[in-house]
Amino acid sequence: MDEQRKTELRNELTRFASRYWAGEAEVAHAFFSVPRTDAEHLRWLGLQAHKELQPRTDGIIIKLIEKLTADYRTLEHGIDRHEMLHTAQFLEEEFRHYVLFADVIDHITGKQVTMEDIVQYELPGETELRAVRKKFTDKYAKFASSFCEGGGASIYYEGMLMTGSPLAEYIAHACKGVYEDEVDHAVHGASDLAGAADTEADWVLAREIVAAISEQRVRMRNEQFGFPMSDTRFAEMIAGTIEIPERYAAMLV
Predict the structure, then answer these.
(1) What is the pLDDT of residues 149-165, one digit of tens each?
(2) Domain count, the chain
(3) Is 250 contained in some domain?
(4) Is 46 a domain residue?
């Protein structure tokens, strides 16, 4: 497969995924566009902090810490310093995202959130999302999942537009900090996928993986924000009859 065709298929996949990113944006916009109680904010913030920290034995934070510990023992003797730096930077980014949202929770509750608090915030939609990801084990699953990660940074874009109160400013600050890190994830994921997918069948499979993961992501976001998206609107999103924000066009190559 030549590079021109790969570029075409990469852009087709980005356009296809944009309907789901637009769905996440619509869910978040519906939530943020009206006044909300502290309890409503704690629901979405708690799950988001949980997603960032992943307080479980196979969570990303603990796995990265374990990897750094193991890699340090063989640094420059099997483990390249640049590889270890990349791991350390990834750990810093993920943990910083947790800190941003945990700080907003502290602002609302007036006390320091604990690990025990965070564990309780996981919702069924997030559990199901992990299950969906685990169904795909082929060599493209990692790249397709990375392409979906962050959902086009949609909820962070909507959240960083909040103004009008100290809490809104806290939320906007947290979302802006995450948006600036997440906005390029889909681009990098698409680039990695283009490097691995060599046939039309590969791209068909990648699209199936993206559809399955992205659909569950929107279900998870809808639950996270109190179900502002109706079943009818969800079906319209799946069908692609949803307005796509122009900002997603920047992800095309």
Answers:
(1) 888 899 999 999 999 99
(2) 1
(3) no
(4) yes
